[in-house]
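I am writing to request your help with a piece of structural work I have in hand. The matter concerns a single protein, recorded as an amino acid sequence and a row of backbone structure tokens. Could you please explain, in whatever detail you think fit, how the structure tokens follow from the sequence? Thank you for your consideration; the sequence and its tokens are set out here:
>
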Amino acid sequence: MKIIDHIKQAKDETLFSFEIIPPKKGNNIQELYSNIDPLIEFDPPFIDVTTSREEYVYIDKDGLLDRKITRMRPGTLGICAAIKHKYNIDTVPHVLCGGFTKEETEYLLVDCHYLGIDNVMALRGDAMSHQKYFQPTKGGHSYAKELVNQIQNLNKGKYLHDVTEVDHKSDFCIGVAGYPEKHIEAPSLQTDLKRLKEKVDAGADYVVTQMFFDNKKYFEFVAAARAAKIEVPIIPGLKPLSTLKHLQLLPHAFKVDLPEPLIEAVSSCKNNKAVRQVGIEWCIEQSKELLAANVPVLHYYSMGKSDNIKAIFSALK
């Protein structure tokens, strides 16, 4: 079922969903199942599965370093199919511009269609680790709106190169990212909203926000988006802090501000166990306020761990 149909069927009741990352190559998928199992009792209508960019590794070959391209966390589509089969829950694979040609994207989308996957999250993706700024893959898309266009064309039966009679078209529901504190590369929040509207005008059906820790940022973002004639559902994305390193890591990696009371509470913690509890309590309060505002979905960035997400869900049910 499409995400927008899940939202419509909920009839103003807030849904709960979460996002996972594929295990690294060589790891058993059972560990992933073990972290999904405790959250099934909360009836998530869908689960997002991230996609990792390719990266360079250096292999010692007779004393010389040989540079190779690899993906440390492949398997997004396989995990989506496995979760859908095991739990009968809709899955949302993340589809990236970076690291994929348009042809590879088309093949991926065709596979999603064959597997009965109705939803995709269209993202530009980040720069590779050795790049200062994002550089498009040769033969790939430069912007998420172009990716949305390709997906919508496939929904209309338009393939990249083949001229063919289409008996059964795909009908993907398309999610895109929104940034309450603006994208790192956007010169202003207003410019970022224009880019978001371009994605929606291209055919995006809903928006999931980047993590934020001050609900005021989300409410202001939604108000600005509505003023810009962006009318699709805007789903808040939440992440509970869990380690002391998050105080430096998250603002640096995602360019988000942490409220001073949260910084002070985390800074006073003696270990990561205490930080994890602070993160849970802060996220519960965020979630309660968002629930009171009747947001369509509360979406949690779990990063594959479920104990803190379960604690949050339990406090809200």
